[in-house]
Amino acid sequence: MALRRSPLLFLLFWLSLVSSDLAAQDRTLDFKTDIAPLFADHCVRCHSPDNTKGGVSLAGVQDLLDNGYLTPRKPDESYLLELVTSQEGKPPAMPQEASPLSDKQVALLTRWIREGAVWPKDVVVKQKSKADTSWWSLQPLKEDFAAIKPASAEQGLTIDDFIRQKLAAEQLTLSPAADRRTLIRRLAFDLHGLPPDPAAVDAFVNDPDPRAYEKLVDRMLASPRYGERMAQHWLDLAHYADTHGFERDKRRDNAWRYRDYVIAAFNADKPYARFLQEQIAGDVLWPDDEQAIIATGFLAAGPWDFVGQVETKSDVLRRSARSLDLDDMATQVMTACMGITINCARCHDHKLDPITQKEYYQLRAVFAGVKRAERVVSQSAIKEYESRKQELTAQLNDIDYRISKLEGTGLDLADIVGGGNGLGTGAFRQGIDARTAKVQTRDFGALGNVQTNRFVASAFNFVDGVFIPDGQAGNANIIVSSTGTTITGLPQTSGKAWDMIRNGPVASQHSPELDGIDFTAAGHSLLGLHANSGITFDLQKIRQSTQLAELKFTAKLGYFGASGPFQADVRVFVDGEEVAKYTQLKREAGLQQLDIDLPSSARFLTLIATDGGNGYSHDQVGFGDPRLVSATPRKMEPAEKQELAQLNAQRKQVASRLKSLGSPPRFYGVVKNEKMPEVHLLVRGNPEAPAEEVLAPAALASLQMLEPELGSTKSSQGERRAALAEWITHPDNPLTKRVIVNRLWLWHFGQSIVKTPSDFGYGGGRPSHPELLDWLAGELQRQNGSLKAMQRLILLSDTYRQQSRAEADQRGYKVDADNRLLWHQNPRRREAEAIRDAVLFVSGKLNPQRGGPGFEDFQYQDAYAPIYTYVTADKPELWRRSIYRYRVRTTPNRFLTTLDCPDPANLTARRLTTTTPLQSLALYNNDFMLRQARYFAVRIKEEVGSQTDAQVQRAFQLALGRKPTTQEAGLASDFVTQQDLFALCRSLLNSNEFVYVD
């Protein structure tokens, strides 16, 4: 029976509503509390500066006025009201993607217009984020897991307990354990990125110890190969490379020290909090620890716009490039460490997560005081290095001088130009300015302030002077020595000049190679000139030094510019007399052998390059291996021969010690700005539209268990970074720990608990096992930040040890086809670098050399935009592990790119795995693969001889870690007989079993 309402009660209720409305009418309307929330909830989703549907934004009042939507004090003439109210019984036209306005809200809007539509200037309507501070990833770690029942009360909770409970809810169970051969291969690729040695496979498979697997895990975690493997994952996040990227893509030849730091940190099992702190502020927190200083290479590992930050003359472009640079630093730190898409708030408040635009710029303020640059590890390190280098160089010089006297080998003119004594002590690519005779090290283009035919004396010991020649009318006699020696017969030139006279190639030289000789390689040298230039050597001083009266000048002269219409002229003079002349010299002409006698009376040797009458473009001339040697062979006495042998042995030892010094202790990292710049919020992310307020450094307020303040506007750059490092690694910060254990899970299962490893916000995935994620995060803290301890937990679990194969009709495919519940292990294809390294390992060509500068599998040509031309890796120095490859951003290695090697311009949280025809073609036909297949066949023949059956057995063991089945052995033997062993090796390296983990 329906309840009867009392007329009196109804009247009292109606009067209360009327009285509340009247009260609202009496109070002053507050736009910020009454109207702004209405627009925020219903309008700005579609009508904002970033999404101006209908050409109007409701973030401010101006668009409403300009487009006729609003007429202050006249509601009847305001089109805005018409859009949000029903017309002729039809629903309101707006909002389209939100609930309609209530009658009360329409009334408020009408009243606001009637009262003048006042919109305070300091109020900007912003769309609310979809997640707030109650979002799951922003909450403290869960500590109560009473709902998870451990399988063993003594052992306590394990990974498997969490997995089994989820499986049981879907009537699923773990798959059986994989066999030992599969497990050792899985571990080897997961922890080392390489296949296991066949002997190690056999030893593990036949080990009766019940703890054999556990001991295997411990041995692999302790191997130095572990750090090489894990570092690749982290460098993906740091989007590390050895060049800047962007238009110029210039080299970063000392960036490798950061790469080696990451490898060493993983091998040392550095506590994770310390690992992060060093990379953000190691130079501040541990200024006496060289490795902590190098760690800050993390902040500078990404791409950098050299043109926008250095070369441009536009302040607007420079501010834009700097803004993007700061965005990259802040984004990298927050994405890699905490899985937060902070960069989404650059132009507006984050639309998905509770991050304001102001907070984004406060985070950028942390890095505003630093810039990317090459820097020394420490002043003490550079001093010690230089002192040791000078000591060893002096020893080497003395030995070389004594050897030279015994052998009568003379002096290297290229080395002299490099500032040396002609015995290999000069600086490579150091040069002499033909305008001033001053020493220069940096590259130059077209030279300004050129004065032709002006001889300038040199301060170099054996160089008399330099000049820029031009045989123009009226200047037939050109002075080429300090004593006034003149020459004639030069052609008229353009009167222009380019770069320096160098010990090595000149700037932008097409190539240092000609007729198959690379004159920058060991055992060679190159005296580089670019038309128009000339240099004169003082033979008298050289004789005094070498005590050789009769000399010869020998060299391999060549045109090192590009092929085609380019050409240059070269002349050689002795005391003003022309002794050699080459006109219109082209690249196609190859090398010209010079062998010029220099009598004891000769005082000056002059080398000249002119532009061949067609301008000086590409006129790159070089004297390869230019030497002044004894004209008469010298006989050595037995005692001298013995002394020479001793000196050569000493030289080898000293040279080895000098080489072991490596490059100077510099790395590519961040240095502080001379002045701390002010940081402002940029309206719509535009560097040309800064807001007035100066922002202090701060973190995110959404993590309510932490204080967001990171200092004040007066804080130094070091204080800001140190504060952020401590905030990120604070024991109460749940995100940092959740993110890294989720990454570890990804590295070992091919998928993570949260599918989006670098986005733990509303736009990312939700955890498949939230309790397990928090338990692992808590365990990381209990294990004192040991990543190896966490990996050991994962690797020893039954979940990890499952087989990856499952029957097609198994129930799991029906209820969990994506295997989010992990009812079996995931088969995974190896990454590009792991495939390359495995090929080298199997062929027997893998070079185990660790650390140091990266190997360059390309030919480098210096130009405005450097040219990187890849070559087949077919010599030992190019057979190192891929982690040590010199990475070029704009010109990636095509073979690796085809196999899904990521672009280092972007940070990569999870690599893509594609399947394309190009991959099959590359694995089967790439020159590297073909050569390695041949080496693989040679290795097998050397190890087992020519017997076909034995060859087949060994090939399968090396490539797949197992013996072939009876059927495989028969088919493979027939294949080898019909084709050859190379064909079998090539096929094995292309098999799915080779390129997949299991």
The radius of gyration over CA amounts to 37 Å
> Number of DSSP helices?
33
Alpha-beta content class: alpha+beta
Biggest sheet record: 8 strands, antiparallel
Written account of the structure:
- This protein has 998 residues and is of the alpha+beta class.
- The chain is built from 33 helices and 26 strands.
- Strands 4, 5, 6, 11, 14, 16, 19 and 21 form an eight-stranded antiparallel beta sheet that branches.
- β5 (431-432) and β6 (439-440) form a beta hairpin.
- α22 packs across α23.
Describe this structure in a few short sentences.
By secondary structure, the chain is α+β, with helices and mostly antiparallel strands.
Notable characteristics:
998 residues, alpha+beta, 8-stranded antiparallel sheet, 6-stranded antiparallel sheet, 26 strands, disordered N terminus
Question: How are the elements arranged and paired?
Answer:
Blueprint: H1 7-26, H2 31-42, E1 47-48, E2 51-52, H3 62-66, H4 79-84, H5 103-114, H6 159-169, H7 180-191, H8 198-205, H9 212-222, H10 224-237, H11 256-267, H12 272-285, H13 290-294, H14 306-311, H15 315-338, H16 357-367, E3 370-376, H17 379-407, E4 411-412, H18 413-417, E5 431-432, E6 439-440, E7 456-457, E8 463-467, E9 478-479, E10 486-487, E11 501-503, E12 513-514, E13 517-518, E14 526-530, E15 533-538, H19 539-546, E16 551-559, E17 568-574, E18 577-585, E19 592-598, E20 604-610, E21 620-630, H20 638-660, E22 666-672, E23 680-682, E24 690-694, H21 717-728, H22 734-749, H23 770-782, H24 787-795, H25 811-815, H26 832-843, E25 858-861, E26 867-870, H27 894-898, H28 917-925, H29 927-944, H30 948-960, H31 966-978, H32 981-988, H33 992-995
Antiparallel strand pairs: 1-2, 3-22, 4-21, 5-6, 5-11, 7-8, 8-15, 9-10, 11-14, 12-13, 14-21, 15-20, 16-19, 16-21, 17-18, 17-20, 23-24, 25-26
